[in-house]
Amino acid sequence: MSRLLTLLLFYRAGYFVGKYISIEKLIETTKESYYESLQASSIKWHENDNDYEPFVKYILEIVVAAYRDFSSRVSLITTDGVSKPDRVKEIIKNTLGPITKTEILAKCPDISQVTVQRTLADLVEKGQIIKIGGGRYTKYVWNN
């Protein structure tokens, strides 16, 4: 409930990034930091001497991460003259560490699953990316 209220407060303050990027998912992926900042902000709460700074900093980091994610998605979609396979290639190339096909599809919702699969197979065949694992847990990483 508190996360929904936080999202509502963002909207009222003019931060609409939550409509396009899941703030909840960003918090979920950094759950440990979330609870640590919440705990740090709650120390001496009963004495009315707590410090909200750790939690506020955490939330601001989440907002910045959401805007960065949104910005990267928009730049990928609005790039004129770049083919869809080239966009998939750039996503993998610019991702630190491995990336899954599902993550690629989430970053480019206008590219079909078939196009992504063909591009991945082509890049693996050419040796430009490395395929890690198999099945639904397959990941891909740029081959430096």
List the helices and strands and how they pair.
Elements: H1 2-12, H2 23-29, H3 31-42, H4 53-77, H5 84-93, E1 99-100, H6 101-107, H7 113-126, E2 129-132, E3 139-142
Antiparallel strand pairs: 1-3, 2-3
Helix pairs in contact: 3-4, 5-7
Summarize the entry for a quick read:
Helix content is 60%, strand content 7%. It is mainly α and 144 residues long. Strand 2 (129-132) and strand 3 (139-142) form a beta hairpin.
- Unreliable sequence segments: none
Structural class: mainly alpha
- Helix % is 55-70%
Order of H and E elements: HHHHHEHHEE
| Span of the ends, CA to CA | 44 Å
Describe the structure.
With 144 residues, this protein is mainly alpha-helical. Helices cover 60% and strands 7% of the residues. It contains 7 helices and 3 strands. It has helices at residues 2-12, 23-29, 31-42, 53-77, 84-93, 101-107, 113-126; strands spanning 99-100, 129-132, 139-142. It has a 3-stranded antiparallel beta sheet. Helix 3 (31-42) runs antiparallel to helix 4. The mean pLDDT is 89.
Give a quick set of tags describing it:
mainly alpha; elongated; 144 residues; 7 helices; 60% helix
